[in-house]
Amino acid sequence: MTDATSPVPRDLTGRAALVTGASRGIGLGVARHLLERGAAVTITARKQAELDEAAASLGAPDRVLALPGNSGDAASRTEAVDRTVERFGSLDVLVNNTGINPQYGPLVHADLAAVSKIFDVNVVAALGFVQEAYRAWMGEHGGAVVNMASVGGFRSSGVIGAYGASKAALIRLTEELAWQLGPTIRVNAVAPAVVKTRFAEALYVQGEDEVASRYPMKRLGTPEDVAALVGFLVSDAASWITGETVRVDGGMLATGST
Predict the structure, then answer these.
(1) Of 70, 80, 185, 236, which alpha carbon lies 20 to 30 A from 159's?
(2) What domains lie within the chain, and their CATH numbers?
């Protein structure tokens, strides 16, 4: 159903969502889209100042809860989930968006502590949030989970190989969870290519037009492109979709190029 002033359906009204890593970029775009569709949203991030700014930009203070915390910390995950249920009365949607990439270069020379940190935040923390959501609400009431993967999870990623490997693990985790948690909890993932965010800036800042020329759509992605897909996957319109990783890559993988 759509209201009279907006083309965005209000089909998530009455539902509560938790979006991690949502102070900027894709996470903030997802939070904004879910709000526009009627949901109440908790956003998390490590830095209080950036999180406060993000919350202010979203408006709707009665439907936004901003909680600072580190996704890699178990206590922070518990607090985020419990505070969401306490504030909004449910936790119907979980978007595991937090991702890091502190390792760059050949894996044979990689700092293993950095590689471990990538997997801990990009994969283990995502599972940790699912466990907390299951404990606090979804186990009894159901819900929808979306994990933020990457096209790097589908093929070799070169100098960001540890990041790509972590996203491949997240794709497999998505499938396992979908199988184990159905039919009441749906678990899907989305896999963006290069999206114009601060996180991905190093991949295009030296020549955006040249990078975009490699894509059939001839442009880079935006947070809004990804957010619209997430909004669909957590809605009832996707009620028979689970265990999927949907590419939102402007056709990049279809080209077969690196």
Answers:
(1) 70
(2) 16-249 (3.40.50.720)
159-170 pLDDT, tens digit each: 899 999 999 999
The candidate with the shortest Cα–Cα distance to 215, out of 231, 204, 224, is: 204
Maximum pairwise Cα distance, the chain = 57
Number of Cβ within a 10 Å radius of residue 62: 7
Which residue is it, tokens 């439907």?
A: 63
Give the model's confidence band at 219: pLDDT under 50 very low, under 70 low, under 90 confident, else very high. confident
Q: Taking the model in full, what pTM does it have? A: 0.93
Catalytic residue among 104, 134, 163, 215: 163
Q: Which residue has the tokens 């907390």?
A: 132
Active site residue 104: no
How sure is the predictor about 8, in pLDDT bands with cuts at 50, 70 and 90?
confident
CB atoms within 10 A of CB 86: 10
